[in-house]
Amino acid sequence: MPRATVAAFWERVAARQAGLVSRRQLNWFGHDRHYVRGQLRAHLRAQGWQEVSATVPATTTGRLTRGQLAWAGTLHAGPGSPVGGLTAAEMHGLAGGQRPAVTVLIGESVNVEPIPGVQFVKTRRDIVGFRSTHWSLPTWQVEPAVLLFAGYTRSSRTAVGVLAAAVQQGLTTPDRLLGWVARMRPLRRAAVFREALWDMGAGAQSVAEIDVGRVCRRFGLPAPRRQVRRTGS
Hints:
It is a single chain. By secondary structure, the protein is mostly helical. Among the domains are: 3-58; 141-227, no CATH class. The chain has helices at residues 3-16, 23-28, 33-45, 66-77, 85-91, 142-152, 156-168, 174-183, 190-201, 207-219, and strands at 50-51, 57-58, 102-107, 118-123. It has a two-stranded antiparallel sheet. Strands 3-4 form a two-stranded parallel ribbon. Strand 1 and strand 2 form a beta hairpin. Helix 5 packs antiparallel against helix 6 (142-152) and helix 6 (142-152) packs antiparallel against helix 7 (156-168). The model has no long low-confidence stretch (mean pLDDT 84).
């Protein structure tokens, strides 16, 4: 195949990946490592590209966006490595939970060189099977993403708050999250999550409301009447 045709292929791939492409992908398109190395050096000298990592160049200059960092992390970690944690939830639309670094999940046996702005998190979970089908960027579904984060963040209140935010913002439902709690067994804090999700299913929309329900059950008090939507003038 002519080099011009091959170049057109990887340029389209880079465009779909926010301007990022891996050396591995360039090799897949028929460029041997010597040609790839020479082209990278030429582009870097011309200051048209920048080297994000030893395996991933960016075909753009300037500071990388969060979307570009996510692509850089997944390409650097290798095929099957998805965006996870609160970064995945952010991709699905979660507001207010953003962390400075983007999270990319890797298998327990995988070791990668660090990239500034990317947090690589090892997990024994099915990183491929939990992927969403809605994104070209490899991204976990919102339910396993928030549950895995919630299971291992330091504060249980932060953990429950993330689940409540995902439900309150309409990204998922208590029933779907309960199903995923069972599917991801064993899951740290599973009992805490089940209790909180039952409260959310009954109408609680914040950690404070969940706390009130827990106190009422503990001391045998009547359950509170939840707020309801009203229509009218």
